[in-house]
Amino acid sequence: MKNKTSIIIWVLAVILILAAAFTFYSNNKSVKLNTPGETATSNQSSESSKVIAPDFSLKDLNGNTVKLSDYKGKVVILNFWAVWCKYCKIEMPDLNELNKELAKENNAVILAVDVQESPDTVKNYLTSNGIDLKVLLDSDGSISQEYGVSGYPTTFIINKDGSLYTYISGKTDKATLLQILEKIKTEEQRK
Asked: What is the DSSP string of the chain?
């Protein structure tokens, strides 16, 4: 009898743990932007499964309004970051170097979205580190929230048609982004 009671207690404990995990997962899913369910090396399986990146308007460091849709027809590397973020600062030189290369080809662009920091803080960081990226200011955090960003840095790769190709949660580098861009280019040539 003691053995049966012990088994029942263990079964109930496992069921409670699974229920708690499901509840936690359900409550912490992104509301507006579903993840594509793909890794950086996989592609969109069909036209109907495409997730369109939400359009937005943000001010750049010069006060100009910039919209994501302004870059339709180009691949967009959309990087959410902050000056206080250690890993953001580590990847920033690679993004800066890649941006210079991309400017020559004019097929892709990097938009670095600083989240909830003052323009002066951002300008000081960029100037003191020789970073020359197109930086947009998400001063209230609403765009990063719309994209479901829960940590920094987070980078989204957006196709020329505005669909989400993939995303990278955490630090990335130039080599990884070049591999993704090459894969996109190869897939476009097959179409």
From this structure: -HHHHHHHHHHHHHHHHHHHHHHHHHHTS-SS----S--TT-----GGG--BPPP-EEEETTS-EEEGGGGTTSEEEEEEE-TT-HHHHHHHHHHHHHHHHHHHHTSEEEEEEEES--HHHHHHHHHHHT---EEEEETTSHHHHHTT--SSSEEEEE-TTSBEEEEEES---HHHHHHHHHHHHHHHHH-
Residue at 158: amino acid letter: I
**Tens-digit pLDDT profile for residues 118-165:** 999 999 999 999 999 999 999 999 999 999 999 999 999 999 999 999
The CATH architecture annotation of domain 31-190 reads 3-Layer(aba) Sandwich (3.40)
Active-site positions read 85, 88
pTM value > 0.70: yes
